[in-house]
Amino acid sequence: MRIPRPSSSSLPSARDRILNKAQALFYQNGVRGTGVDRIIAEASVTKVTFYRHFPSKDDLVLAYLEHRHAAWTAWFREALVAARADQSEDERQNAPLAPLLDAARAWFATADFRGCAFANTVAEAGQSVPGITGIATRHKQEVRDAIAALLPATDARAETAWAATLALDGAAVNAQLSPPAAEAALAGLRVILDALERERAVIPSRR
Length: 207
Fold this sequence. Notes:
The chain is mostly helical. The protein folds into 2 domains: 13-55, Homeodomain-like (Arc Repressor Mutant, subunit A, Orthogonal Bundle), CATH 1.10.10.60; 57-201, Tetracycline Repressor, domain 2 (Orthogonal Bundle), CATH 1.10.357. It is built from 10 helices and no strands. The chain has helices at 14-29, 36-43, 47-53, 57-85, 89-94, 98-108, 117-125, 132-148, 157-175, 179-201. Helix 1 crosses helix 2 and helix 6 (98-108) runs antiparallel to helix 10 (179-201). The longest helix has 29 residues, at 57-85. It starts with 13 loop residues before the first helix and ends in a 6-residue tail after the last helix.
């Protein structure tokens, strides 16, 4: 997937140029591995301009995560809906989590894929930057909710969606290692999703 830029303007503002560069650099190199001076240089702004829009690097990190959250979850929901639309009614009933595998395959295949931005940022700086864990928690909850929307309303719905979310996270960690690792991660994710669907099938629906 491709995360859209913060602005659709043909002439992005200084703030958008800063955030555009931060999007790419933070995701590829990490928030600790990317210095403010590099972002300033690549965004072609002055330090005065940078700090006028983002009083600290922490403010920029939070803006990066908020933008990526909105863009990625929108893409994820659309990918799930599109994959589900391609299923037959029988497939929707018996393999409701299959669209998640399709979305994961598309995500892992993107040229700039480097795992989950939120898990990466929490691991790097979650305890040192107030607000990071809150955004990451909200992100995971919305991913879980999008997955839950694929499932029928049974007693197992919430826990099945959460288990699938954790499986997706684990697959993403391994998929970033190499193309063969990505294929292995998808194969493993398929096994887990199949098992979740079998377990879900034996738990009765609410009456």
